[in-house]
Design a protein that fits this description.
alpha/beta; Metallo-beta-lactamase, Chain A; seven-stranded mixed β-sheet
Length: 254
């Protein structure tokens, strides 16, 4: 399995993109603004989008993806998410007011897009690539994902705050090699982190004390303007691990 980071920022600027990751050319893990850097040919190869949650920085490019490539497809784009997240997308995004409902275009029998419900703990197998939704604790229904090649696993926390359920699952992953976990705010904004159900460095340090495995740890969802400060605080608050900042364009092979 090969995972390329298309976007990993908590905001946008000329060189920052929001959360999106490309797995083996045909699968997206979230569809934030980083998807927009792909060529039309690369976009047309994407058959599946696995969505952690419904917030705009994680789904912004799904409408443009399906609209830009629909005539190039011989099968629908499949959007995988929990029932709660799919309901939000149907009601508030693909609702004919914000964007057309591509599950009805050109018709119900042969749509350009389809929905597939996922559940926490239930693995989706795509040709031996095992993708499993993991518990997350956010302001809307949310999940993380485990990507398992058989040889090794990568865990992406998605947007989450303190979450014992996640560590109960992660600590059972014997082939865990990589952990990508969010830290959205600096310690000065801890109250905002708690209110919005994100992490700050002091909270991350507390969470990683629950981790019994020894993966490489990468920090995602850093807010523009606070990247250096937050990573400095991560280094000060985390004990026993050396997390590094996730980078656009970074590639994981496992």
């Amino acid at each position: 399995m090969k995972l390329k980071i298309l976007g990993c920022s908590g905001g946008i600027s000329s060189n920052l993109r929001t959360t999106s990751m490309l797995l083996d050319n045909d699968v997206l893990i979230d569809a934030g603004t980083g998807v927009g850097d792909l060529s039309l040919t690369e976009l047309s190869m994407i058959d599946h989008v696995f969505v952690t949650h419904s917030h705009l920085d994680h789904v912004a490019c799904i409408p443009f993806l399906v609209d830009s490539t629909n005539i190039m497809r011989d099968k629908p784009l499949t959007v995988h998410a929990t029932a709660e997240t799919l309901e939000i997308l149907q009601q508030h995004l693909f609702n004919w007011k914000i964007w057309p409902d591509f599950t009805q275009i050109p018709n119900e029998q042969q749509p350009y897009m389809r929905y597939q419900t996922v559940e926490v703990g239930r693995t989706v197998d795509l040709g031996g690539r095992r993708i499993t939704p993991l518990p997350a604790n956010h302001t809307v229904p949310a999940v993380g994902f485990r990507l398992d090649s058989g040889e090794a696993s990568l865990v992406f926390s998605g947007d989450t705050t303190s979450n014992d359920e996640l560590w109960d699952v992660v600590n059972e992953i014997k082939n865990l090699r990589y952990l990508i976990i969010e830290t959205a705010f600096s310690n000065a904004e801890k109250e905002l982190a708690v209110l919005s159900k994100h992490l700050c460095p002091s909270m991350l340090g507390e969470e990683l004390l629950k981790l019994k495995r020894r993966p490489e740890i990468y920090i995602t969802h850093l807010k523009p303007g606070e990247i250096e400060l937050t990573m400095q605080e991560v280094a000060e608050c985390v004990r026993g691990f050396t997390p590094v900042m996730l980078q656009n364009g970074q590639v994981f092979e496992f």
